[in-house]
Amino acid sequence: MNKELSYWVTLAHLPKIKTRVKNEIIVRLFEQQKTIIDFFNFTEEIWKNKFDLSDSDISIIKSGIDELPNNSFLVESLLEQGYKILPITSPDYSPVLKKNLGRSFAPPVLYTKGNLQILKEESIAIVGSRKANEKSLLFTDNIAKIASENYKVVVSGFAKGVDKQALDSALKYKGHSIIVLPQGITTFKSGFKKYYKQIIDGDVLVLSTFHPKAIWSVQLAMARNPIIYGLAKEIYVAESDYKGGTWSGVIDGLRKKRIIYVRKPELDEKNANLILIQKGAKPVDINGNLLKYETVNKKIDIRVSEPTQNYNEIESKIINLLKKGIYTSKSIVELLKIDWSTKKVTNYLKNHKDVVTINKKPLKFTHTSKQENKEQPKQQSFDF
Amino acid sequence: MNRFEAERELKRIFGFEKFYDEQWETIERLFAGERVLLIEKTGFGKSLCYQFPATQFEGVTVIFSPLIALMRDQVKALNDKGIIARYINSEQSKEENSQIIQEALQGQIKILYIAPERQENIEWIEAARKMNLSMVVIDEAHTISVWGHDFRPAFRRIINLVKLLPQNFPVLATTATATERVQKDIEQQISGNITTIRGSLIRENFELYVIKVGLEDEKLIWLAENLPQLEGTGIIYTGTRVNTEIYSRWFEFLGITTTEYNAGLDAESRKEIETGLMANKWKAVISTNALGMGIDKSDIRFIIHTQIPASPIHYYQEIGRAGRDGKPAKLILFYNNTKDKKGIEEDYKLPKAFIDGGRPSIKNYQQVINVLKQEPLGERQIMKATNLKQTQVRVIKADLIEQGIIKEVLYGRSKKYEYQFDAPELNTKSFEELRNQKLKELNSMIEYVNLTTSRMKFLCDYLGDNTPHSYLNCDNTNLPKYTISIKDEYLEKLKEFRETFFPVLKVESKNSNIINGIAASYYGVSSVGAAIHRSKYENGGDFPDFLLRLTLKAFRKHYGNEKFDCIIYVPPTESGDLVKNFAEKLSKVLKIPISHNLVKTSETKPQKVFQNSYLKKDNVSGKFDYQNPDEIAGKSVILFDDIFDSGATIKEVGNLLTKYGVKKIAPLVIARTVGGDI
């Protein structure tokens, strides 16, 4: 029994404190060889000086301390019911998730039920609309089959449509699967009953990052998407609408420079797959085979108007901006109102001879003339 | 707060002048957020060690206690002092418990007593997540150790909870009885920085006696003669429920006022008896070990055991409640040392049987594991799927949870058991180890019986109390031994009692016109069972006439001159016309017409096939009907059957006849089984 767990749960659900701040605390504890129990016993001075916490953070942490005994009751009840609580420092915590989401987004605690080994296996995610068409479901089935045959775990979100197909297909082909819940883990009763055999046979892991008692909500469903992406090494999109969970998930993924495969749609399909491909996702056919961008793009020409702005004009605008200071790709796109994706900006600048890349997340760029070499990337001893 | 300030508060709130040093040491440590294990004898004042700090803390102190009677007494005493205390347990209605939980949430309660089983209750867990908690207390902490004498699986969860509590959160565990092994186990389980404070266990006012007998009747006769002579009031512990009934009827027959108490009684009756005991309503309460621990009565003058307890710790614990006022108390233990053909002493058999029957077979464990591999099931569903007794299922469940093979999961408001993905193999080695330990302890109890030196010294040594004392006050030191002399007068009385004592069938319920009935005998206690068995299962022909005479006697004693309109008998499953023929004979003698109209609408299996009451109930549910119901509407009827086991059949027919408008249904059977021993 891990006596730190009540403390972990308390930290994970402290309200109004960013994940990044929580993870910074954990990293510093690691560096100072202190435990999370020590952290809650530190004085305000230490919180302020050694952890750089603000007054408002400190008052939130103080009220968290009052909740420690209560969270002990919660944790006892969870463990008793067979749920596992994985702090980010646990060897069982998903290494892929930690790497993909990093300090800013990796949840400090995961709640799971089932075979933890699944978190260590190669994984893909299949995502898509709740009202996916036949082709999308066939695509999902194909991808799940290939993944299962190659001993890759299929990660999905337990929504209707593509999610459900991904799970059921993975199990049909004797593969492993992770269900990422849009709710607290204790509120998933019907699912636990339905997948009971698969869970006890070790084929399914159920995972949630939310407070164990949280019920389903749209916000949680949206917040769950980055976790699905984070748990997977490859992401396959069967079908996306022009807005909604899949759409914003892919956009977010592309921004985080994830490689995302989108099924190339037929001409008569009404969905946003083509636009996502245009925005930088990689097109694949119904069996997941990678297609050349150009073959897809020809068809885009018919339907989507190309940007009219001169390519060279944009380039010189960017370089001129960088002569004035340090910018991230995102801020460049926003400031100059250009029609490039941030990824495209990044790739362009990384290879530009007159541009200096500052290797701090998020990446920043500046012109060689501005570089004063002030900021050295900090040495990190913690695996983020 | 220093000791001076604390004692000023003590005086103001509790009216006491000073703390004992050991009390203050405990309290001081709790104030400092430490964990303490306090081992002190009954009457030391252990409860003050948590009650006082609780009054000084801001939030609520939660006390896990397995003793419902103790909760009630202490809460009353605290409220009288103006300290707001409440308890939550199965004795109160759901609404009452919910109300108290609400009060605790609003911070209106200082001290909250709670049964350990409550840790499995979802409403409590939810509420505890939100309460302002100050301290957790584990009362009777020996029950958290499997090496203790009264291990309770529910405490496993309390321990898990304590391990998860913040490191500087005060935790107190108390017990009066812990051997060194149990002490170490508790220390290790509670973990953290725990300090153990141990006091002396000697009870100088105890007078310890052992009376060896050669016959069971000698126990009854000695008590008949001597119980009225003993000073004050007390408790007689019998080893089994059925013996509480027999001893109690025997004293009733002799005109000695006693009452029986066991876990089979409903909460209200238990409460009534506990209150009556406090008010010295009876000379003695005849009880299983369900009564006693935690009864806060200072002047219990004697405690008598008609059977030996399972170990010297059990014994010390059970006699511990006597003489708390410091005045002399007599502790008498009977032991029947007659040897059977195999050389085993008579009174060794019952505790040995408890050890042997304590665990179901490995096959039963496997059965439960197998059904849970298919789907999550609740307790009742497991019983139905495996045809195991409730007690067996409970033992198996607790063991499987303990070993991490299954988990108890909340499905909304109901609990289900789930097999675990990473479940280990069933470990039977620990069962064997425990069994050996229990046998060893039982042998120590026999050692106590046969002791020729100081009995109190033996008990203190056994419990790990090494403080030096002069040990007196037993029949091996300065007190005379009790001896048995059998007078013919009492032999006669006993014979008369045997012929007029009939077991009652408790079947009354709100929605049925059935009344409590009568049996001619217990199934296993006399020659009756054997006679029935011969007729039923060995082609022995009709039930013999001595059963008819006995049944008629029981009928007359219980129902007197009450008028009945007809005799209805339960149609048989496999024993042919035995019941019918017997009912016809009864009808002739009693001159009450017989009805053959109670019929089975579909086949049932013999009830004895089923091991638990759910399956027994299912087996007979809706399986009976009465042809021509108009003839019995508004009538009083006798309902006859040969054997009464779970009572499911009699109750089912009772419900049917009530539906058809029968005014009164009076059950009559030849034999009642004892704990399903058929």
Please give a structural write-up.
The complex is a heterodimer of chains A (384) and B (678). Chain A is of the alpha/beta class and 384 residues long. Chain A folds into three domains: 1-80; 116-303, Rossmann fold (3-Layer(aba) Sandwich); 311-367, Arc Repressor Mutant, subunit A (Orthogonal Bundle), CATH 1.10.10. Chain A has helices at 5-12, 19-31, 36-41, 44-51, 55-66, 68-80, 95-105, 134-149, 162-172, 189-194, 196-200, 218-231, 245-255, 273-278, 293-303, 311-322, 329-336, 342-350; strands spanning 84-87, 109-114, 123-128, 153-156, 177-180, 204-208, 234-239, 260-263, 282-284, 327-328, 355-358, 364-367. In chain A, the strands form two sheets. A nine-stranded mixed beta sheet of chain A has the order 1-2-6-5-4-3-7-8-9, with helices on both faces. Chain A has a three-stranded antiparallel beta sheet with strand order 10-12-11. In chain A, helix 9 links the parallel strand 4 and strand 5 (177-180). The radius of gyration of chain A is 23 Å and the shape is flat. Residues 300-308 and 372-381 of chain A have low confidence and may be disordered. Chain B is α/β, with parallel strands linked by helices. Chain B folds into four domains: 3-198, 3-Layer(aba) Sandwich (Rossmann fold), CATH 3.40.50.300; 206-338 and 451-495, P-loop containing nucleotide triphosphate hydrolases (Rossmann fold, 3-Layer(aba) Sandwich), CATH 3.40.50.300; 362-427, Orthogonal Bundle (Arc Repressor Mutant, subunit A), CATH 1.10.10; 502-672, Rossmann fold (3-Layer(aba) Sandwich), CATH 3.40.50. In chain B, helix 22 (578-590) links the parallel strand 18 and strand 19 (594-595). The longest helix of chain B has 21 residues, at 429-449. Chain B is globular and about 85 Å long. The mean pLDDT of chain B is 89. The chains are: A alpha/beta (384), B alpha/beta (678).
